[in-house]
């Protein structure tokens, strides 16, 4: 068995591993977009071979300054040696990341998802390889009626990043993170500290696709900060990337105003579907999504490899959405 980065002439072989032509076409388009956007390179496309046969593959995504994300991991699950192949492929992924001096390696396992068959086996392989589960999340989506108005009334005043400046936004991130119910965010706060966590989240959010007026701090009528909401886009769809209420303003239902602002912002930008996610432990946030018209559509379990950590474990889906802070009720 050999595991190595692909050569340029092997791109089609790499893409065509699945027996599903439609799936291969979608994946090929993903690889092409990522290569053109410099979010990956051929060295992040690993292939496992046994003679002339392809027996596994892994596709990694990486933007400068952001974590390395395992976007696709495949072995032939019908073969009796799937553990051997899968374990060797994961070791090769870890080695490639460490050799490149990258410090964070993430894997998100979605279920149900056509690209993630055998979730129990995948979990077994990644856990055995030293990955630690940091979050069990729920992904949500709301489909937008194109005939509906994107305007919304609110008791809050919303100011953009340009209005308030970066320091105010970092401070708001730190405040809404206090008392979070999100496991990944608790881990980040523990590891990076309050200010370090806010700086890291600001950096990660800046790496997402967004417009200048998609980031908002929310204020009550007396000018007191209530919370924040950040709308953005990953590689596929518009997302609510970050939302939260500061501790002293919780209990007044302000999270509903924040979500309404995000929906209005992205609807005005032409979104037909908006996605978000939250930790399953954050029941108040899940309730808020339901009130805002969102429905759950899949579960997401997130893993991190400890030996390459250094930056935060957040991924915003660029490959999934940034986790949500504890909202008010």
Structure description:
With 329 residues, the chain is an alpha+beta fold. The protein folds into 2 domains: 101 residues, 3-Layer(aba) Sandwich (Aminopeptidase); 157 residues, Gcn5-related N-acetyltransferase (GNAT) (Aminopeptidase, 3-Layer(aba) Sandwich). Helices cover 34% and strands 28% of the residues. It is built from 9 helices and 12 strands. It has an 8-stranded mixed sheet with strand order 1-2-3-4-5-12-6-11. A 4-stranded antiparallel sheet has the order 7-8-9-10, sandwiched between helices. α3 crosses α4 and α6 runs antiparallel to α7. The longest helix has 24 residues. The N and C termini lie far apart (55 Å). The C terminus is likely disordered.
What key phrases describe this protein's structure?
329 residues, alpha+beta, Aminopeptidase, eight-stranded mixed beta sheet, four-stranded antiparallel beta sheet, disordered C terminus
